[in-house]
Write a structure and sequence with these properties.
The protein is α+β, with helices and mostly antiparallel strands. It has a single domain, classed as OB fold (Dihydrolipoamide Acetyltransferase, E2P). The protein contains four helices and eight strands; from the N terminus they run H-E-H-E-E-E-E-H-H-E-E-E. Strands 1, 2, 3, 4, 5, 6, 7 and 8 form an eight-stranded mixed β-sheet that branches. The chain is globular.
Length: about 150
């Protein structure tokens, strides 16, 4: 009896958490995504996320769209995508994503994942780090401008 009750409770809890994480009912805000990824054992949240792009940047062949002015802010949610997606977005919107998306509210479908970022000093990785939450975009169809 106790075992059956525990199984039922576990199923109900799992169903409730899965529904919240997938964002089926409402898009997940950047603040909620960061909080949920931080609290998750897997450090990730799958769903549809809605937020306004406050800052943008490029590093090597990656482009970043950020929910906060300072990408190092713990509340920041970053969208990251490689040059191939950048090209798709330029073709789709007629402008470079760095300029086009700044100040726009977007929906992005994907997986918000908490990642460890190591500090690099003079080209050498240190043992100091902080966390960021990123959504990796592999196709321009994952992003919609509202």
């Amino acid at each position: 009896m106790k075992q059956t009750l525990l199984i039922i409770l576990a199923i109900l809890l799992f169903t409730a958490c899965a529904e919240k994480k997938t964002g089926k009912h409402m898009p997940i805000s950047s603040t909620e995504a960061v909080s949920m990824a931080t609290a998750s054992e897997l450090s990730k949240v799958v769903g549809i996320f809605a937020f306004t792009i406050q800052s943008t940047g490029n590093q090597k062949d990656m482009t970043y769209l950020n929910s906060e002015l300072d990408y190092r802010d713990q509340k920041n949610l970053s969208i990251e995508f490689p040059a191939v997606v950048r090209g798709q977005l330029i073709e789709k919107y007629g402008a470079h994503p760095i300029q086009f998306f700044k100040g726009k509210k977007i929906l992005v479908e994907g997986e918000a994942k908490r990642i460890k970022i190591y500090r690099v000093i003079r080209g050498i990785r240190t043992d100091k780090y902080y966390y960021q939450t990123h959504i990796r975009v592999n196709n321009s169809d994952q992003i919609t401008v509202l």
